[in-house]
Amino acid sequence: MIKAGIIGGSGYTGGELIRLLLNHPEVEIDFVYSTTKADQLIAHSHEDLLGSCDLKFVGGINSDVDVLFLCLGHGNSKKFLDVHEFSAKTKIIDLSNDFRLTPDKSYGGRTFEYGLPELQKQTIKNAQHIANPGCFATAIQLGLLPLAKEGLLKESIHINATTGSTGAGVVPSPTTHFSWRNDNLSWYKPFTHQHLGEINQSIVSLQNNQPDIFLLPQRGDFAKGIFVTSYMKFEKGLEETWNLFQDYYVMEPFTHVSTKEVHLKQVINTNHCFIHLHRHNDVLLITSIVDNLIKGASGQAVQNMNLLFGFTESDGLNLKGSYF
Q: Which of 32, 62, 236, 305 is at a distance of 20 to 30 A from 244, taking alpha carbons?
């Protein structure tokens, strides 16, 4: 049994992480740190945990925990580690974007490895600290990695990616307000989204060339999930391409290639990514879907923790979604 600490547990990703760890067979939550909610019951912030969790947020930390999860806003993980010390045994999993890109992976005497299990599982197993991938980056990369591995991403890639309102965090904003978001659709950060850095970095690690990627993120009028469509000119036939994807993911417990069209409800409240391939003339369409808070954040963090500590990769993640 290992002890876990959570920094920033009052947000959406923190809440999902607490739920997952409460039901993990190998983990005990040692503390959940919050500067704004110290001494308050966690179930008062995450109301679905009433009767399941009697822990309180704390204003102090235990520097000797086995694993530390940083569920902080982007830029704040570095600031937190600058002023808090942890033991040499403490493995850190950061859910922000502070350490995902290679120039930032070494910080304060620590080295953070990029934690996309389907890309570099063995590296994760041998790591001490992990930079958890972004939610868009996860969904998009899982749709592209099998082709990049074979050096087949030669043409420009066009991507539409629609995310739920929880992707914007727990603090309300004008574009997450119900009256604005409901029955609405809009784009943001066209072609400049910060997750492009991760995506390009991974593709370059697998193949020599870096194709142009045109990413159009969109705000959907739903709470959870990311629905990605990526399309490009592609020379190989559909059956051969499907076999490439099957071979790449055959040993992966959470990424699956479907012969039927996929839709977002299939993966909500699970750690799964579902992928579907469609060909129209010389264009390949790849659809990939995830729950942005689980496979796109906290579930993947637990998956990485399992790999770090030698647990079964799916421990604590055998989640059953709801079709309706």
A: 305
Active site residues: 135
| Pair (275, 160) in one structural domain | yes
149 with 284, same domain: the answer is: yes
Both tokens of residue 171? 């603090």
d(Cα 94, Cα 133) in Å, to the nearest integer? 9
Q: Where are the alpha helices (DSSP H) in the chain?
A: 12-22, 42-45, 76-83, 117-125, 135-149, 178-181, 196-206, 238-249, 299-308
Say if 41 falls within a structural domain. Answer: yes
The answer to whether residue 34 sits within a structural domain is: yes
Domain that holds residue 220: 135-292
- pLDDT of 321 reads 72
User: Could you give the 3-state DSSP secondary structure of residue 250?
Assistant: coil
Residue whose structure tokens are 């959907």: 220
pLDDT given for residue 38 in this prediction: 92
What is the tally of structural domains in the chain? Answer: 2
Residue 212 pLDDT > 70 = yes
pLDDT tens-place string over residues 42-59: 999 999 999 999 999 999
Neighbours of 287 (CB within 10 A): 20
Amino acid, res. 262: V
Rounded to 5 degrees, φ, ψ at 109 are 80, 5
In a domain, 315, yes or no: no
**pLDDT for res 169:** 81
pLDDT tens digits along 173-192: 888 878 888 899 999 999 99
pTM: predicted TM-score of the whole model, two decimal places = 0.96
Judged on CB neighbours under 10 Å (0-12, 13-18, 19+), 310 is: exposed
